[in-house]
Amino acid sequence: MQTRALVIAGGISLIAGALAFVGVFSYLAANFSYPQILDGSAAEVLPRLRAGGDTMRAAWAIYAVLPLLLVIGAVGVYAAIPSRAAAMTLAVAFATIGALAMCLGLMRWPSIHWELARAYESAGPDAQHSIAATFIGLNLYLGNYIGEFLGEVCLAGFFFVSGLAMRGEPRFPGWIGIGGVVFSVLFVLGALRNFVPQVQAIADVNNYLLPLWMIVLGGAVIRYTRAR
Asked: Containing domain of residue 59, as a range?
């Protein structure tokens, strides 16, 4: 019973996380030109962040904690594949590191970037130059390297390992495992966009595939682990 409860909690977390991701992503896309604005300068981005007010800040705060649902989801997938405990332990580790990395990357927006935006409003030319340098450095370190690259590569590791584990579990149809492996490869390729601009199109597609696969995976662990 406890194992089944973990599976259900994990499946629901994956589905809820996916739907919340779509909601917040859509809000930021409509009101902040996200994710294209990530390539903008401090002079373009910080005033727009500040102009969004408390609603914009709250949206970023919610967005920053959503990856934590992936940890609960990973534990649920672990509980759904008891015959592959060793592999799924690795998968949970990947999901945990990836989720924390994504949280760190996203949390710069409602915290440090918000304060930078507030200071930028009244700063003189020299101070604005310093703020812009800080803004760029934080985007490069927390955004590109920690949140996007490390976070997405580790999350891809979770999807890859869990996909392989599901292929060896007879309760799951073969396409689930294959889908997880294929998506993990696409996710790794997308994570390389900051180093290989040619894969940006794959990263753009992954913004839609990620919530879709989270829903599929969450629904699968709930459905295919029911007592028979």
From this structure: 2-223
Alpha carbon distance 117, 93 (integer Å): 35
Q: What is the pTM of this model?
A: 0.93
Q: How many domains does the chain have?
A: 1
SS3 state of residue 33 = coil
Residue 177 lies in a domain: yes
* 153 is a domain residue: yes
**Has residue 228 been placed in a domain?**
no
Tens-place pLDDT, residues 53-95: 999 999 999 999 999 999 999 999 999 998 899 999 999 999 9
3-state secondary structure of 102: helix
Instruction: Compute the radius of gyration of the chain from its Cα atoms.
Output: 19
What is the DSSP secondary-structure string of 157-215? HHHHHHHHHHHT-TTS-HHHHHHHHHHHHHHHHHHGGGT-GGGHHHHHHHHHHHHHHHH
What is the rounded distance in angstroms from the CA atom of residue 176 to the CA atom of residue 157? 16
